[in-house]
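User: I'm putting together a teaching handout on how multi-component assemblies are represented. Below are the sequence lines for each component of a complex, exactly as they appear in our records. Could you produce the 3D structure of the whole assembly as structure tokens, so the students can see both representations side by side? Please keep the chain order the same as the input.
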Amino acid sequence: AQRVTQPEKLLSVFKGAPVELKCNYSYSGSPELFWYVQYSRQRLQLLLRHISRESIKGFTADLNKGETSFHLKKPFAQEEDSAMYYCALSGMGGFQKLVFGTGTRLLVSP
Amino acid sequence: GAGVSQSPSNKVTEKGKDVELRCDPISGHTALYWYRQRLGQGLEFLIYFQGNSAPDKSGLPSDRFSAERTGESVSTLTIQRTQQEDSAVYLCASSLTGGNQPQHFGDGTRLSIL
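Assistant: Of course. Below is the structure of the complete assembly, with chains in the same order as your input.
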């Protein structure tokens, strides 16, 4: 069964501090992992996906198959990063359900 | 259209009434999802439609909840005999083929049960 675990409901940091939002998953095959973000009063949107190996808004995430993790990191948090972040998992290929974690609220204080 | 469209944006109704929520996905998207987001909570999966395949209803919380989709177009989520715990934002998302394709979300319908 597919499962995504985000152990922290809330993560509070000061501006300029490093950020790591944790995500662990359970999946028997080869997974595809994603991070979605929901800023205040905006739609939920895709932030990044592991297959793209890209950095978006300074965020990166590396898939660690040994630890079954896909933690989201940013070296220097900004106030505008405050949002709800969701980790999500799917099997490889199309036509498969995307499963979301319960989300972590990131609060960056000045 | 430009994106996923949901209607109504807000719905207030009395306990016990039936409600119907609508989702217009992006044209050409075969996959459509419904989620529930209670205040201060994360996303709760409800149902998944993929093309003409049988929907994945594993997330529906009770038999008061049902959803339909005609082909690859509009979907409706119906909640019968609403209860106060049904109060939430109901989100719809569509993607090109499901799974590894990015999901595009609507603004949601905020449902309040009095």
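A couple of points students might notice: The beta strands of chain B are 5-7, 10-13, 19-24, 31-37, 43-50, 65-69, 75-79, 88-95, 104-105, 109-113. Chain B has one domain: 5-113.
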